[in-house]
Each structure stands twice: as structure tokens, then as C-alpha cells.
Amino acid sequence: MSADLLELKPETAKKLMELFYQCMEEGMPKEKAYKEMYKRFFDDEKNWLEE
């Protein structure tokens, strides 16, 4: 899948960036922080489940 095919809601992009920088502040290397960002995002069901 190409990144240009993926369109994120602004609030979703904001949450992902917050999680990424949180991981970086915890001392994770950039690649690990990137993976951990998605893990934390999807672990928190309220981010992706529609009610």
C-alpha cells in the first residue's frame, strides 16, 4: 500500500504524532518509536473503534 493512498483524519494524525514524540522522549530510537506509536494507538480501542 502506498502512503499517498492513506488519508488520515486530522485528529488521528495529531494523536499519532503525540504518541511518536512521547516515545522519543522516553528514549526510544526513531524506528522503535515509530512502531511503538502504532502499537499504542491500536491498543487503545477508543482511537479506532467507531461507536
Helix and strand arrangement:
Blueprint: H1 10-25, H2 30-43
**N- to C-terminal separation?**
27 Å
| Classification by helices and strands | mainly alpha
What string gives the helices and strands in order? HH
Count of extended strands: 0
| Count of the separate structural domains | 1
Using the alpha-carbon principal axes, give the shape. globular
> Which residues sit in consecutive blocks of at least 5 with pLDDT less than 50?
none
Number of helices: 2
Helix content: 55-70%
What proportion of the residues form beta strands (DSSP E)? under 5%
Average per-residue pLDDT, rounded, comes to 85
Q: How many strands, which pairing sense, and closed or not: the largest β-sheet?
A: none
Radius of gyration: 12 Å
Protein model, in words:
This protein has 51 residues and is mostly helical. It has one domain. Helix content is 59%, strand content 0%. It is built from 2 helices and no strands. Helix 1 crosses helix 2 (30-43). The longest helix has 16 residues, at 10-25. The radius of gyration is 12 Å and the shape is globular.
